[in-house]
Write a structure and sequence with these properties.
globular; alpha/beta; homodimer; 232 residues
């Protein structure tokens, strides 16, 4: 009931009438029917952002890799496995999206070929695995010539966090980047807490360590503000 | 209370006074602080076996890769990530184990080197990943010259299931193999159900599709029988 009350309060909220598309979780890139390459993303940050955006009055679509999280209330969830599936799902209906928030930890590379049957362990001590670069989902969306949504990326780094984030912002033509330091075990991928720096072309705002849920509310507030400034 | 009653009934159960060591779940082989290679094992089969063995009166140690399952009651759980950690944990105290059941889906290969910092995506379209073979945990245990426990392996296959299982049994000098067909989506890795064939040097017993919990009880009963025959 409290949640519904909060939701009602946000009918005139910061993102009322806006459509927000959010990617979350890891992707899994299969080597064969049983093995895959993935990463430690839990999806908690993306799911919390989806909930916060819905509470801020937005119509929310969540495009999610494999995670162990319940679907947030009032959010439309599309489940995907691989980066290619996530890209296709992201572009499907992108012309309806006002904001695109890429919180997923997309695998940079996938195996060149996927074996139809389980690869038998051979006698070789060393095996070479050929990987090919995955499509860059957030850069593809940010580079759209028509119907380009306001585009927010994430940067999970282990060093020089703001430096890497700002170069990523420019290179991928993003509007904003949410940067965090995953080398700190108290925050980040599998933790319930996070601390981030919101980086734009000419500004940076630090949001100190708090729960991902609380941080998501602060982030949605900041993102909405910057979005509205950009459309004025 | 029912569980406790059942447990008491099994004080004189098929494995009373025996020590059973069980591996379960996948292993994760890191590429860098955020990425890893893994597989679709949920750990459900190994956890169900641990529970069934405890119910059959055994003292149970469960050596578990990363899973989303609660620790079974009356079972000592050791958590590990990589195959090398799982091997070390398995050999630690192996002289106390009467039976060793290798239900884990151990990664066959791991990256040759683990990057200390997150690998930055380069401009290369293709990346070669060098992998080195992991230690074979169940074969190492089965090959022990002293204090060798009765050793049961698993074979997850997508074709010619019994054929591959029997050649694995001989090659790794196992006492028994539990073989299952992971190409059937109704059973296997992420499913709650399973169906297996128990393969020994001169016999095979098919256990038809049922819940992993029910199947685990049948398996522990069969394994205990064969174990007692082998020690007569």
């Amino acid at each position: 009931e409290l949640a519904e009350l909060a939701a009602e309060q946000f009918q005139h909220g910061a993102l009322a009438g806006k459509r927000v598309c959010i990617t979350a979780g890891p992707t899994r890139e299969p080597l064969d029917p049983v093995r895959y390459i993935s990463n430690h993303s839990s999806g908690k940050m993306g799911y919390a952002l989806a909930e916060a955006a819905a509470d801020a009055g937005a119509s929310v679509r969540l495009i999610s890799g494999p995670v162990n999280l319940p679907a947030p209330a009032r959010v439309e969830v599309t489940s995907v496995e691989t980066a290619e599936e996530m890209l296709a799902a992201s572009l499907d209906g992108i012309d309806q999206c006002d904001l695109f928030i890429a919180a997923a930890a997309v695998a940079d590379y996938r195996p060149v070929s996927v074996a139809e049957h389980k690869i038998k362990k051979g006698s070789e001590e060393i095996m070479e695995l050929r990987l090919v670069k995955n499509p860059d989902i957030v850069a593809t969306v940010a580079g759209l010539q028509e119907h380009r949504p306001y585009t927010v990326g994430f940067a999970a780094e282990t060093r020089d966090v703001v430096g890497y984030a700002r170069s990523k912002l420019a290179r991928k033509q993003l509007d904003l980047i949410v940067a965090n330091d995953v080398s700190n075990p108290e925050i980040g991928f599998n933790s319930d807490d996070n601390a981030v720096t919101l980086v734009s072309a000419d500004d940076e705002i630090s949001l100190p360590q708090t729960s991902k849920r609380q941080l998501a509310r602060q982030l949605i507030e900041q993102i909405a503000q910057q979005y509205h400034q950009s459309t004025q």
